[in-house]
Structure formats: structure tokens, C-alpha cells
Design brief:
Layout: H1 2-25, H2 42-55, H3 57-87, H4 92-120, H5 122-142, H6 150-179, H7 185-214, H8 216-227, H9 231-235
Helix pairs in contact: 1-4, 1-6, 2-7, 3-5, 3-6, 3-7, 3-8, 4-5, 4-6, 5-6, 5-8, 7-8
């Protein structure tokens, strides 16, 4: 299990560094700090960010899409390893190899995410990635029907998942940044991280409870159901009919003032 834990950590580190690198390239230059300006307390920053986000429908839709995805991922992650190691009886060494090979998906997704954004628009990129998530989650429990193909199917699924998550994250984060005025970037980021990462933790707690009560396969199907809800938030905003924010949704127009 030590080998598995090490390989999983390495894959996540590589993927997250790639996503962070491309995300940082899209951030605007830092504003010149104002001397003597008091630091905003975290609680106040989160409240201000939440107030701004609830007034900006597209920004709110993107946050809810990510939060729903993370809640499903929390449920999924709680049962994933148990299902593979216990139900499918895959060895820890082989499962670690799955994680190592599938790292290429996350790296590839981070590399092509900007190109996909230019091709179909960032909103469509996030939307189509959100459509694929429940399909990907469903492929894992389906592996029980063909356990002799478990290594191939799980490796393929994890690789595609890493690719899709990278495309989703890069385009979602860059779009949120573009929609947010410079003065609100830190506050919106604090609010967004609190809600989206909080939903991941809540999903994990729910997943662990379901795992103990109903088993891994049932828990994975719950994750599929939760994940299927995420695209509804962007559908309500006219995506995929449009791939980019409207001019009146961008901060330069003054329409998004808090």
C-alpha cells in the first residue's frame, strides 16, 4: 500500500502542477499594492465574494458546476479504491501502475486545454467536460461485468478522467478570472475555494457513509447520479449555444459591480 500511496501522490502532483502552470499564465498582472491599506479578514472576504458571485449569474453557474462536480468526486473517491482493491481484487502494485500510466491524461489535458478553449470557447469546454464526468464515473462499476479486463478499462478510464478534469479546471478557472474585477479576485477566490472544496469534503463524508451502509458499487452509482446534475447549471445560462461570456458579463462593462 505504501507503493500505491506514493504513486497516487506523484500522479496528482504532476497533474496539479500542470494545471496550475497554465492557469497562472492567464492571470492578469498583480496590482500595485496600496501602502497602509488594511488587510480584509477572511470571513469578510468570503462574505463579500459570495455577495458578488450571487449577483453574477454566469459566475454563480460556474461555481455551482464545480461544486457539484466536486461533491460527486468526493462520493466517488470514497468508494473507488475499495471497489478496485476489494471487489475487483486488483493488487495494490497493479493499481499503483494504473495511476502512474493514467497521469499522462492529466498532463495532456493541461497542454491542450487552451487550444480547446480557442476552438470551441471556454464555456463549451467546461460544459462538454461536465457531460463526460458521469459517463466516466459509470465506467468503473461497469468493470465488474468484465473483471478480466479490469486493468485495461480502469487505466483507460483514469486516463480520460485526468484529461477531462484538466480541461474542465483550466477553462473554468480562467473564465472565472476573466469575469471577476481585479479588486474582487481574492474575495471571489476565497469564496469559490471554500464552497467547491467544502463540497468535496461533504461528498467524501457522504461517500464513506454510503460505502459502509450499501457497499462500493452502490456508492459509485450515487456519484454518477450527482455528477449528472452539474451540466444543468450551464444549460440554464445558454451553454452550449454560446461558448464565451457576453460583453455585459465582463467586468469592463461595469455590469458586474458589487
Amino acid at each position: 500500500y505504501e507503493m500505491l500511496r506514493s504513486l497516487v501522490g506523484s500522479e496528482m502532483c504532476i497533474r496539479d502542477r500542470g494545471i496550475a502552470g497554465f492557469g497562472l499564465r492567464k492571470l492578469p498582472p498583480d496590482a500595485v499594492p496600496v501602502e497602509g491599506k488594511p488587510r480584509i479578514p477572511m470571513g469578510e472576504a468570503i462574505r463579500d465574494g459570495l455577495r458578488f458571485m450571487t449577483q453574477h449569474k454566469l459566475l454563480l453557474a460556474l461555481m455551482l458546476t464545480t461544486a457539484t462536480n466536486n461533491a460527486a468526486a468526493g462520493v466517488y473517491t470514497a468508494a473507488q479504491s475499495w471497489f478496485v482493491l476489494k471487489d475487483l481484487r486488483m493488487s495494490p502494485e497493479l493499481f499503483g501502475l494504473v495511476w502512474s500510466i493514467s497521469a499522462i491524461g492529466g498532463i495532456g489535458g493541461a497542454l491542450v486545454a487552451p487550444k480547446i478553449s480557442k476552438w470551441i470557447g471556454p464555456l463549451r469546454a467546461v460544459f462538454f467536460a461536465s457531460l463526460w464526468m458521469p459517463v466516466n464515473f459509470a465506467l468503473i462499476p461497469f468493470t465488474a461485468l468484465v473483471p478480466y479486463l479490469a486493468f485495461i478499462m480502469i487505466t483507460t478510464t483514469f486516463t480520460i478522467f485526468g484529461f477531462v478534469v484538466s480541461v474542465f479546471t483550466v477553462n473554468s478557472t480562467s473564465t472565472v478570472t476573466a469575469l471577476t474585477p481585479d479588486d474582487f479576485l481574492a474575495r471571489v477566490a476565497a469564496t469559490r475555494r471554500t464552497i467547491t472544496q467544502g463540497s468535496l469534503a461533504i461528498g467524501g463524508l457522504l461517500g464513506a457513509t454510503l460505502l459502509a451502509a450499501f457497499g462500493a458499487a452502490a456508492t459509485l452509482w450515487v456519484a454518477v447520479g450527482v455528477s449528472a446534475l452539474q451540466s444543468a447549471h450551464l444549460l440554464r445560462m445558454g451553454v452550449p449555444r454560446r461558448g464565451h461570456p457576453r460583453p455585459d458579463e465582463l467586468p469592463e462593462t461595469g455590469a458586474t459591480k458589487a
